[in-house]
C-alpha cells in the first residue's frame, strides 16, 4: 500500500506522518432553539482512513490541537481560525 495523500492539522498546520495519534472532528447540526447557543455539535472521532477524506471533517494532530479546536468551537462556533 502507498500513502500518497497528505493531511495537515487544521489547527497548527503540521503534516501528518505515518506514525502519530491524529484525530478527526466533525461539526454536526443540532436542533437548538436557544439564541445564544451554537447550532452545531463537536464530535471527536478516532482517525479513520475513510472518514478522513470527507469534506466536512477536520484533522487534528493530537490532544493539544483537539483542545484548541474545542476552545475555538466554543468561542466562535467554528474550528478554522
Ligand atoms: Zn496540530
Walkthrough of the structure:
This protein has 81 residues and is α+β, with helices and mostly antiparallel strands. 17% of the residues lie in helices and 22% in strands. It has one helix spanning 63-76, and strands at residues 23-29, 40-46, 57-60. Strands 2-1-3 form a 3-stranded antiparallel sheet. The protein binds zinc ion.
Which features does this protein show?
3-stranded antiparallel β-sheet, elongated, 81 residues, binds zinc ion, 3 strands, alpha+beta
Oligomer kind:
single chain
Strand order of the largest sheet: 2-1-3
Mean pLDDT: 87
Are any ligands bound, and if so which?
zinc ion
Q: How far apart lie the N and C ends?
A: 34 Å
| E-strand count | 3
Order of helices and strands: EEEH
**What share of residues is helical?**
10-25%
Overall spatial form:
elongated
The number of helical segments is 1
Domain count: the total is: 1
- Strand coverage percent: 15-25%
Radius of gyration: 14 Å
Helix/strand-derived category reads: alpha+beta
Low-confidence stretches: none
Biggest sheet overview = 3 strands, antiparallel
Amino acid at each position: 500500500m502507498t500513502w500518497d495523500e497528505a493531511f495537515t492539522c487544521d489547527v497548527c498546520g503540521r503534516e501528518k506522518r505515518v506514525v502519530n495519534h491524529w484525530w478527526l472532528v466533525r461539526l454536526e447540526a443540532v436542533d437548538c432553539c436557544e439564541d445564544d447557543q451554537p447550532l452545531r455539535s463537536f464530535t471527536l472521532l478516532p482517525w479513520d482512513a475513510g472518514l478522513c477524506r470527507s469534506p466536512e471533517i477536520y484533522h487534528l494532530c493530537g490532544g493539544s490541537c483537539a483542545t484548541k479546536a474545542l476552545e475555538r468551537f466554543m468561542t466562535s462556533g467554528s474550528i478554522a481560525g
